[in-house]
């Protein structure tokens, strides 16, 4: 798995989430939207690894998580997030929605339409969405 693979997966998963939203498959849409964000954060982390360098053990271990906040910190983007949140209240709200996602939602059959719509919008919204912001760091 490399940076390009992770970026491609992020694009594919958000596209699939949109298809599932349109098909009223809200649990799958919710899960895949969050997974798209996870892949984008992991793509940001890969920029810290140089070709032919032995990977830093802590960076490697910290990368093997589904926790979006931990991935953000591992990607070195915590300060950038704080700065963006202070400049854009809508982004701050979007991150708070997106950051509630967990890989455990793949087992959650109680996710409703509004949950899926809110997460998808928080992640993709063009002005204040989390994915458009992350694209600055890919």
How is this fold's topology laid out?
Blueprint: H1 3-22, H2 26-46, H3 57-63, H4 68-74, H5 78-87, H6 89-98, H7 113-124, H8 130-134
Helix pairs in contact: 1-2, 1-7, 2-4, 2-7, 5-6, 6-7
Q: What's a quick, concise take on this entry?
A:
By secondary structure, this protein is an all-alpha fold. The chain has helices spanning 3-22, 26-46, 57-63, 68-74, 78-87, 89-98, 113-124, 130-134.
Characterise this structure:
The protein is mainly alpha-helical. It is 67% helix and 0% strand. The protein is built from eight helices and no strands. Helix 6 crosses helix 7. The radius of gyration is 15 Å and the shape is globular. The mean pLDDT is 93.
Number of helices: 8
- Binned, the helix content reads 55-70%
| Arithmetic mean of pLDDT | 93
Q: Strand content of the residues, in percent?
A: under 5%
The Rg value, from CA coordinates, equals 15 Å
SS content category: mainly alpha
Low-confidence stretches: none
What order do the SSEs take from the amino end to the carboxyl end, as H and E? HHHHHHHH
Number of strands: 0
Largest sheet: none
Shape: globular
Spatial separation of the terminal alpha carbons: 15 Å
